[in-house]
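Thread title: Can someone regenerate the structure for this chain?

I was given the following input by a collaborator and told the matching structure tokens would be attached. They weren't. Posting the sequence so someone can regenerate them.
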Amino acid sequence: MKKFLVLGSTYIQIPFIKKAKEMGLYAISIGEKGGICERYADSYVPLDVANIPEVLEFARQESVSGVISCGSELGIYVAAYVNEQLGLSQKYVSSTATKNAALKDKYASLMPSLIPPGFSTDNLDEVLDRIGMFGGKVIFKPGIGGGGRGITVLDEVDTVAVTDAFYRAQMASRNKRVVVQEFIEGTVIGVESFTFDSEVRPLVVPEKDVSDPPACITRGVVFPSGLNSQTLSKVLAANEQAIRSMEIEWGPTHIDMVVDEHGNPWVIDVGARLASGLLMSVSVPDYYSYDFVKAAILLALNQMPPEIPAKGNGKYYASRAIIAHRDGILRSVTYDERQRSECNVFSVIQMIPTGTTVSTAKADADRILKFVVREDSYEKAIQNLDAFERSVEVLIE
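Best answer:
Regenerated them for you:
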């Protein structure tokens, strides 16, 4: 039986473990001790993914046939690096591309026309000296980091607020650099694509529901989006330009943008991976009747996946996440099963186990429950999403 290595031990990796086992592979999970993936993998090794030499040596000793990761830029880079060192797949994203995507402080040199005005630095004094260049809201984010960690949006740039925002971003940044940019007001969107031998195949353009500043947590998405055809064309052109700027030639990409009041897209994040959560493991696969998790695994095994259908099923998909309203212990999560049926909710997943300590959301990983609605119209999907959410009760003590 071929061995398949999944890097990371959070819920994000579970779809890959389950799918690998379904495909007849022996799924090995590497991650922090006590990670949830231990319950799902054929074997589990408590090894720090950041310890690249040890991960590489383990993969070599186990003679793995493929390696994958999702969610963490570090995990994605290490997976690409191990793949290259062991010569596992020629149909896999390169370590150079994953590094380009992870280094948000380098976006200005890689795709200067696509990102909001700003700068990056590891020096607070430089920030305080240059913060006056912005005329409105300012966003601080880690030079390397993901999942919404360390992001702050400021309406006013007084010294105390700027200092707090800078150090919050720097603490979450693996290279200790902080990106400071003009905050672009507009519609937050994502673009999900697969690239096969440099041919970009855009799939869906979901609109995002993002929580208010300062945290800016993604609470949900809806697709197809309500963007007009002219704006959508600009978005898809920016998506392809970003993928080529990152030197991504193979595999899935998840790119976040903001479309401003003039219909111009601004790239705010590039992920050389599938979108985490339910979007690419539940909603988009249902829309296309296509298994994108399996496709990503096949590429990691140096195999071409089946052709992706040219069109979706014409339905509208909306998802939402429940986040903690207070700090404490998560005692229970309940919802009305009848309401679930009436609202056409076809997937509900509790992301944080009952009994876990939770806090008011500071990152995407703090989302407690996620659910997806499938409907015939954009408006009906949102309406049912709201109706089902009202039936959800979360007890935190």
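The longest helix spans residues 229-245.
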